[in-house]
Amino acid sequence: MNLELKLSIKNLLGAKLRTLLNVLVLSISFVVIILLNSIMDGWDAQAKKDSIEWEFGKGQLLHNQYDPNDFFSILDGHGQIPENDIGLTPVFVHQATIYPQNRMMNTILKGADPNQKTTLLPTHKLLESKALLPAIIGKRMAEATNLKIGDELLVRWRDKNGAFDAAKITIVDVFNSNVPAIDLGQIWISIETLWSITGHKNEATLFIASDSFVNTNLDSWKFTSQKELLQNITDLVSQKKTGQSIVYLLLMGIALLAIFDTQVLSIYRRQKEIGTYIALGMTRLRVVRLFTLEGSIYSFLALILGGLYGSPLFYLLSKFGFPVPPADQKMGLALAETIIPVYSFKLVLGTVLLVLISATIVSYLPARKIAKLNPALALKGKQQ
Amino acid sequence: MKKPSIILIEKINKSYPVAGKSFMALKDVSLSFEEGEFTGIVGPSGSGKTTLLNIIGTLDSPTQGKAIVLNSDVSTLSHSQAANIRNLHIGFIFQVFNLLPVYTVYENVEFALLLQKYNSKERKKAVMESLDWVGLADHANKKPDKLSGGESQRVAIARAMVKKPKILLADEPTANLDSENAHGILSTMKKLNKDLGTTFLFSTHDEKVMGYLNRMIYLRDGSVEKDVLNGKTEK
Which end of chain B, N or C, is more open, meaning fewer C-beta atoms within 10 Å of its C-beta? Predict the structure, then answer.
């Protein structure tokens, strides 16, 4: 093997430009695969972290009749808060209508404990304000309604008896979260205030679990674990990754085709050399191995070259992040303004193996022909 | 006293498919070669010279008959057994030199020893000795494309001889050389034959070569026409 390795390196270095081109194309594939996947992994990690910190906590306990994806379930999907403290932060959800700039807009009022620390929602701002009905909204909601801190806004709702009531709320903070699910179309006020204006005293629609939460069976409530809540993100990222894989599979395909092509051409053009190797006493298997190794070394060189120009690129991206266009952030996905790529050992090792194995396979396929060559004809350079 | 046969050819036939028909390259050829011979297989193009050398060199096998080379029946050898015999005991010299273009002169000659797993010190000694035989020790670091035809063929001889093979097969070794180079090459080979006792078999139709040969086997249309040893026709 040592001899074949030396010979193949020598042969590749002798091929100069052909080697450089193959190595360059393969190295681009290598870098692009790592780059695209690390960005997706970065998004996955960032979206999950933000969702946990802002929305899901350690999991959520939802009222049996409440479905977060069904607007109509808000009306009946709430119940009394269990008496004992079980490490949960209650959230009460109620429908309302707002009139920003004299336009009517459906919204959801969400009541939360101003002292809660389970999520990063700045509910403490509700306590700090001297306004009569203080409220906080997210940056997307602020943008959609053209509201800013200090603005007053008319809100109309139905109380528990179905009677309409209305009041002016004051926006005391606009928080910046990457999680649209706690932002778009929502207004956060104190849960005590929401109970008081709706008459649903001590009721909650859902609870956000903290670290101290112990899952016990509670009637009318169902627990959804953090992992289940994050499943949507996992599915979405994996779906995106599959779509993206087409890009790098195409790139890999081009690189591997170039290697395959080079190998076929090599075997065609180097018949005399093959015949000479065999005449000098090399077994056919060793010659097949030599040509396969030549192809594999392309991938080694590509990894080295990709490492050389990819490392500074990866470093810069991990430091400054990958900017996400503002339009993408409005798609309802938990997307930060910049995604910091995550370069996991699994990703790098997987990509290295993918490049090495696929290059070796495409090198071996044409090299198999050598085993069937007639060395006497090969020595004359005759086509077989 | 007669030396033992190093190569024994018994009634071999070799046919190839050519344009859908079977072409007989060798017909009922029987020959025997002794150790240390300096023999030429002489004949026009297409007479079967190269086919015979390829069979003796274990690169090909006869369609019928027996070819015993160094006590091994060529027809029954596996690819790796044949490679092993070539690696250890048979050297080749080709008409167009067949030097490996990306290697230096030194590396081309060293190649056969690498296959035999000599250590680097032994290799260096043997390669330089071999290059000395052919007078190219000072060209060791040159690439083949920097050599003349005569020099290239000398490198090929050094490569073939470096492992001190029992048999050296040379297929039209002077066909691409001018008269002066051809004589130089032949003198070198004759000297090596004498000094090392290697059996030399040439395929040739070059008049220049014939003057150096002890034995000439004339092939015509795949059959042995004449076998002349030291000017005396045996067949």
Answer: N
